[in-house]
Amino acid sequence: MLEIRPILSALSRQKSRTLLILLQIAITFAVVVNSIAIVKQRLDMMGRATGIDEAHLLSLNINAIDENYNFKQNIHADLEMLRNTPGVEDAVVINQVPLSGSGDSSSVAASQEQFDKFENFGAGFFMADNHIINTLGVKIIEGRNFTAEEVEYTAARANAKVTIITKSLADKLFPEGDALGKKVYLGGDLQPTIVGIIERQAGSWVHHPILFDNMLFPIVRLNRFHRVLIRVKTTQDLNRILAEVEDKLIKRNNQRVITSINSMEELKASSYSGDNAMTKILWTVSILLIIITALGIVGIVSFNVNQRTKQIGTRRALGAQKSDIQKYFITENILLTSIGLTIGCIICIGLNMVLVEKYSATPIDWQYFPIGIGLMLTLGILSVWWPARKAANISPTIATQTT
Amino acid sequence: MFKYYLMLSWLSVKRTPMLTALMVLAIGLGISVTMTVLTVNYLMGKDPIPEKSHQLFHVQLYTYGKDRSNPRSADGYPYQVTYQDAMNLSRSEIPNRKTRSLQTGYSVIPSSSDSSPFMETARAIDSDFFAMFKVPFIYGGAWESSVDTKAKQVVVLGKEINDRLFKGENSVGKQVNLNSNLYTVVGVIDDWQPAIHYYDLNNNHFGDTQQIFVPFSLLPVLELPSWGNNNGWKTETINTYQDKLNSEQMWNQFWVELESPQQKEKFQAWLEGYVEQQKQLGRFEHENAGGSLKDVVEWMDYNNVVSDDNTILVGLAFMFLAVCLINTIGLLLAKFLRRAPEVGVRRALGASQGEIFVQHLVDVGLIGLAGGTLGLLLGQLGLWGIKQLYANYHQLVYMDMTLVVLAILIAIGSSVVAGLYPAWKICRTNPSIYLKIQ
Question: What is the least distance, in Å, from the CA of A113 to any CA of chain B?
C-alpha cells in the first residue's frame, strides 16, 4: 500500500534537494531540542520552591547619616512602627535579603576537628531578631524559634550561642538526621547549638549550590547601613507599603537615607534576569527556526508538485484516486522527515555533549526525543498538507495536454 | 549587460513573488538572529582600552593558608587582595602608575534643604587611577599624589552628580557633604561609561559607573565601608575596622601600569621577593604562594565577562543561520530549475554557460541584498529586545561601524554561499532536453 519504492526512486533523482531538506530538518531538530532542554532547565530552576513567603515580602536599606545616630534605639523604634502598621505581618532588621544576590556566608563544620581539616560546608549567614521565622514565613520542622532573651544587639562580631539551620544544611552536617541539639563550629569560639531546623529557606545567591544551606543567628548588627525585611498580609498591602514606607521611616527620623525599596518578586526577577532572557531568546530562536523550516518544506513541495504536474495528471488519468496522490506526498514527507530526524538525533546528542562538557549544561532527558520527533513529524505533515492537496486537485486531463 | 540581467532578475522575482519573499525572509531572519547575538558577544568581549590594555595589570596574590584555594578562579588565586597587601604593593617604585581600589558608598547630603539626601556608590582609589584608565575631566583634575599617603577629604565627581548638586557648573573648590563629612571637589569627570567595568570585575560587570571618587588613603581615617565583595578564609576575630585592616580578608583591588615587558618582568620579580619576605613573617603558607599579573584582556577572560550563555547563543545562532541558508539553497534550486526550459532556450540561442551563471548570481545578489537589509532592520529589533531583557545592558548594546560592516559581509557571504550551487547547477543545464519537449 505504501509507495515507498517509487518515492525513494523519485528522491534519488533529486539528490541535492533531498539532502538539503534532510539537513534542514536534522539541524532544526538538534537546535530546537537542545534549546527546549535548556529552557526547561532554567524554568525549573526559577520555579524552585524558596520556602519563604515570596509574594508578601519587601525589603529596603537604611543608611544613617547622623554622627550621633543611636542604632539600637532607632532600630527598635522602626521595627515597632513597622510591626504596628496595618497590613504588615512582621518585620526585621536583617543582614541579608534572600534572593537578592548580595549577602554573607561562612564555613561551618560538625566538629572542631573537621573544621580544622577544612572538612566544612558553606552556608548563608543570616542575622536578625526572633521575628525572623515569622517574617520570612519559613516553617520550623524540629526544635524551636529563638527567644527574645537570646537576641543580641552588637556592633562587633557577636558570639551567638544558638542557631537555627535549614534541613538541607542539617542533612549535610549530620547525615544521621540527629542535628537538633548538636553544636556546629564556625571557627574560633563561635560554636552555637542548633535549637531549630527549618524545612526550607532560600539564601541570597540563586546560582550558588549552597542556595538552600542557611544558618540563622539571633543577632542584630548595629551598623550605619542596615537592611529591613517586611512581610505584609496581602498583595494590596504590599503595593501600599512599597509606596508609603519611605515617607513613614523618614518622618520618624530624617537623619538617614532609604534606598532599594524592592518587593521580593522584583529581587527574584533581577537575580534571574539572565536566565529569563535566555529562555525568551531560545524560545524566539526555536519558533523562528520552526517557521523557517516549515515554510521551506512548503516551498520545496509546492515546487515538486509544479514540476510533476504532468506526471501526477498521468497517474490520475491511469486511475489513481485524489487521496492516493495526497498520500504519496505525505508519505514522501514522513519518509524524509524520519531520515532527517535520525541524523538530527545524532547531531542533537553531539551538540548536547559539547554543551555539557564545556558549558555546564545538563544532559538532555530521553523524553525530549519522542516529543521533538513527534513535533517535527506533525510539522512536516502540516507543511506538506496544502501543497499535497493542490497536487491531488490536478486534473487528469492535464496528461493529454502538451505542456 | 548588467542592466539586462537586473531586468531578467526583476521579471523572475515578479513571476515567483512568494518564493522570493520566502528566501528574503529566510536570509533576513538568519542574519538578524546571528547579528543580534554576535553584537552582544562582540561588545562584551571587546577590548575596552585597546591602546593600553596590555600595559594595565591586575595584581593577585596567593595569600591563602595551606590547602586553601579559590574554587571559582581558573588558577586558584583569590580575586582580590588584603588591605595590608594593597598598602605594601603601593610602596613599589617600579610601576609608572599604580592604584589601590575599593568600591564603597555614601549618603550624599545636598546643601539646599529642599532636596533630600540620597545614596551613591563610590570608588576609593589613588590619584593615578584617572590617568591609568583614561578618565576624561571637564573641570579640574585628580588630587595631588601626596594625598595618596597623607589623607585629605577631597573628591572627584561624575558629570551626572555634578549636574545634580551644582547644576553642571564648575564645582572645583566647592564642598560636598558625604556621610556628614565635608569633601572639597578637586575635579569633575565627563560622562565616562565604559561598556564593561573592567577596572572592577569583582562587582557588577555592566551598568552605570560610579559618580564619586575619593582617596583610598581615607580608608583608615573615615573607616569607609566596603560595598563590594569581602572574602575571608582564616578564622579571625574582626570586631573593629582596624581588625579588618589587619586581617587576611580580601576586599581591595590593586592595579599597576607597566609600560614594557622588561618593566613587567622587573615588577614580577619584585612581587616574588615580596612573597618571600612575607613568608618570613609567617604569611603565604600555601605551596602555590606567589603573585600573578593579568592584563585587561586576560583579566576579562579570567572573570568570564562573556558568559557561557552568550557563547551557547552564538553557536546556536550560527546553526540557525545554517538552516536559513540551507533553506534558501533549496528554494533557489527550485526557483532556478523551474526556469530551466527558458535557460535551455537561451543557451540554444547562444548564451554561454558563464553568462547564465553570472545572470543567476545577479538574481541571488538581489535576494541577498534584500535579505541583508531586512536582516539589519530586524537585527535592530533584536537588539531592542535584548535591551528589554537585560536591564543593565543599556550601555553595552549598540551597533558600531565594525558590526554594520560585519553584518553586510555576512549577508553577502551568505547569499553567495547559498547561490553558488544553484547557479552552477542551472548553468550546466543541457539545452537539448528542454528544446525537445517544447
Answer: 14
Q: Sketch the domain layout of chain B as residue ranges.
A: 2-48+307-437, 96-259
Check CB contact under 8 Å for B331 and A300.
yes
Query: In angstroms, rounded to a whole number, what is the distance separating the alpha carbons of residues A3 and A24?
Result: 24
Q: Can you list the positions of beta strands (E) in A323-386?
A: none
Residue A257 has its nearest CB partner, among B117, B326, B333, at: B117
Give every CB contact of residue B99 below 8 A, 6+ residues apart in sequence. B125, B126, B127, B128, B129, B132, B216, B254, B255
Measure B238 CA to nearest chain A CA, in Å: 6
- The CA distance from B269 to the nearest CA of chain A, in Å, is 32
Per-residue pLDDT of chain A (403 residues; tens, 9 = 90+): 457 777 777 777 777 778 888 899 999 999 999 999 999 999 999 999 999 999 999 999 998 887 788 888 999 999 999 999 999 999 999 999 999 988 888 889 998 888 888 788 889 999 999 999 999 999 999 999 999 999 999 887 778 899 999 999 999 999 998 999 999 998 878 899 999 999 999 999 998 889 999 999 999 988 888 899 999 999 999 999 999 999 999 999 888 889 889 999 999 998 898 899 899 999 999 999 999 998 888 888 887 787 788 888 888 888 888 888 888 888 888 888 899 999 999 999 999 998 888 887 788 888 889 988 998 899 888 888 888 888 888 888 876 775 5
State whether B389 and A360 contact (CB < 8 Å).
Answer: no
Check CB contact under 8 Å for B330 and A188.
no
As given in the structure block, the three cell numbers for residue A376 are 517535527
C-alpha cell at B53: 590594555
Hey, are the CB atoms on A24 and B330 less than 8 Å from each other?
yes
CB contact under 8 A, A63 and B389: no
Compute CA B385 distance to the chain's CA centroid, rounded to the nearest angstrom: 18
Closest Cβ opposite residue B29 in set A21, A288, A306: A288
Whether residue B180 and residue A306 make contact (CB cut-off 8 A), yes or no, is no
Q: For B100, phi and psi rounded to 5 degrees?
A: -85, 155
Of B122, B55, B124, nearest in space to B83 by CA: B124
Supply angle C-alpha B230, A205, B124, rounded to 5: 30
